[in-house]
Amino acid sequence: HNQAHGPSQHTTGSADKALYLDSSGDEQEVALVAGGSATLMDRFFRSTSATGAPDFTEIEQTKSITIEDPVAGDKFIIKHFSFPVTIREVHSTRIGGTSVTWNLYQDPNFSVETTKVFSSDVVTSTENTATRSTPNTAAVAENDFLTIEITAISGTPTQFHATVRYTTT
Asked: How confident is the model at residue 131 (pLDDT cuts 50, 70, 90)?
């Protein structure tokens, strides 16, 4: 027969919806949301109980590194991405000293730093509070390494910390 069943009936004349079966087995729909919000999160679809309606929930994606006794020339791998991502922001702080100057790089080869995330090196002079930095080159390709290099220090910092927030693309 020609009667529409299931998803095709729900989506006639409307789009951008996710369909699910409720605890009674009836089809329900929820409007889709944009990928990521102003708080820089990716979203996933989940329910908080066996009978509750699912909804889109945000999940924070971060990778952090703490470098003890940083010196100019320190270079570390933060993460290898097996999927493309967009770096949204980096929060950094230091303990001790006066400042730490650094940059992130994204390249398929760890030993070749050619693609800077920030067009100019970032200076973190705040101590014990996070400094937020927004990248100039945010797209990281699949199979790229994300590395950090300390390019200069002032004083004798005992710790430098950076947290990279990213979303999947």
From this structure: very high
